[in-house]
Amino acid sequence: MKDRAGSTVLVVDDSVENVTLLSRILKMSGYSVAVADNGAQAVELAKSEPPDLILLDINMPEMDGFETSARLQSDEQTRDIPIIFISALDKIEDKTRAFRAGGMDYILKPFEYEEVQARIEAHLALRRLRLQLEQTNQELAARVDELTRSQELLAERERRLSAFVAALPNLSFILDEQGRYLEIMSKENSLLSARPNDLIGRSVEEIMAPKEGAKIVDAIQETIEKGDIQVIEYKIPVRTGSEHWFEGRIACMEKDGYGHGKVIMMASEITERVHLYQEIQRLANQDGLTGCFNRRFFMERASQEIQRSLRYKGALSLLMMDIDHFKIFNDRYGHQVGDKLLCHLVTLCQRQLRAQDSLGRYGGEEFVVLMPETNQAGAMKAAERLREKIEKMKIRTPQGNLSITVSMGVASFERGFDETKTLDILVKSADTALYAAKAAGRNCVRAS
Q1: Which of 38, 283, 382, 399 gives 20 to 30 Å between its CA and that of 237?
Q2: First to last CA, the chain
Q3: CATH 3.30.450.20 spans which residues of the chain?
Q4: Topology at the third CATH level for domain 4-119
Q5: Helix 16-28 vs helix 113-142: angle between axes, to the nearest 10 degrees?
Q6: pLDDT tens digits for range 183-202
Q7: pLDDT tens digits, residue range 271-312?
Q8: What's the pLDDT at 255?
Q9: Contact 434, 445 (CB under 8 A)
């Protein structure tokens, strides 16, 4: 096993000044240093002479640090080498992208000597401990008769691992196979669900919501059974009363032949990252102007509902709605007033529709409503009620209070339950009914 003097750090940076400074720091700390000034060279060096750790800059020509890290992670020969990004980029999206590309840590430029040294020591120690764990497991499989010695090795490894984990900035726990807290190492007790002394000896399923507790216990048992590191995301209310998201990395510490064992779980707080992802998902599914579902997401949801309707033989209806003479309205009052009208219309519809109904913008001034568990008679009644509400709606503008009318077409699946029926058939039927409503003079509802 390598000690500090035998550990090699690969520095990847196209800045001569940065390489010179980092090399000086590393050599003073007793490390061997390899250097690459671009991503392609770094990948080749990592394959031919694998280092123990890589310090990786982001902004480099041709292949940046994100792509370099992704290539190293995709190669079985280099994917286990820990990567620490060192960059002046301090936006959350840059840090998130770095971790998704496989980075284990992120240091901001300009950096402090002590911080770089501490981070490197921590990650090299983790690498050494992981390699030691693999070696110990192999020895235990081949030498089951040396139980006493094996227990001594495990106890020593546990003490060393505990000392290392206690020095990390994350929350760290040692748990048994049933998810009971055996030891808690944390400098941020405010991020715990209770005081450390109140958690020891209790199971995560007692502390957390049933879904989150079961998720962690399942991951613990899979880790002990297979020996693979499990990565999970979970949320819990912390001592401050707010709800936080965490990423938990679970690794096996020890196990016996009866399925009993211990794991270490390192939890990093990722609430901001999760909220950012949720916001991106929300924006990807919404119409940018009105806030209702966009066409792509509506059609995906409608396809799922049709399959459910056919499986359980439940009725389902689709309402297609078009604003009467919307082009004339836009030409007369302007597009800003037209946009205001669309937003008011969506708000009114969302108030009138049921929670299980889905509203989407199909295109321009045309909208669609999916009504699960609704036959044609029920859909016609709901559509007529909605049409009357829209007819009475007043939109305040500089030109005075304006109003509109809509034409609606209704199509339903409620008998026969032919599995060849598709969303396209339902939309086409509703569109045919919509044209019939327009032909009947507009401001009315027709069914196919």
Answers
A1: 283
A2: 76
A3: 143-275
A4: Rossmann fold (3.40.50)
A5: 60
A6: 887 767 778 888 888 889 99
A7: 888 877 777 777 778 888 998 999 999 999 998 888 888 888
A8: 85
A9: no
Return the CATH superfamily for domain 143-275: PAS domain (3.30.450.20)
- What pLDDT does residue 419 have? 58
Q: Within the chain, which residue ranges are assigned CATH 3.40.50.2300?
A: 4-119
Element (H, E) at 395: strand 395-397
Structure confidence at residue 171 (pLDDT): 83
Q: What pLDDT digit, counting tens, does each position of 389-441 carry?
A: 999 999 888 888 989 999 999 999 876 555 567 888 899 999 999 999 999 99
CB distance 22 to 13 below 8 Å? yes
The letter for the amino acid at 406 is V
Residue 125, sorted as left (phi over 0), alpha (psi -120 to 50) or beta, turns out to be alpha
Q: What is the DSSP string of 10-59?
A: EEE-S-HHHHHHHHHHHHHTT-EEEEESSHHHHHHHHHHS--SEEEE-S-
The CA angle 315-317-319, to the nearest 5 degrees, is 170
Question: Which of 251, 225, 91 is closest to 164 using CA atoms?
Answer: 251
- The fold of the 286-447 domain, in CATH, is Alpha-Beta Plaits (3.30.70)
Encoded tokens for 155: 């106890």
Give the closest residue to 250 by CA, choosing from 266, 261, 236, 270: 266
- CA torsion angle 44 46 47 50 (round to 10): 150
Enumerate residues 6+ apart whose C-beta is below 8 A from 18: 57, 86, 109
DSSP code, position 191:
G
Beta strand segments in 297-339, E: 316-323
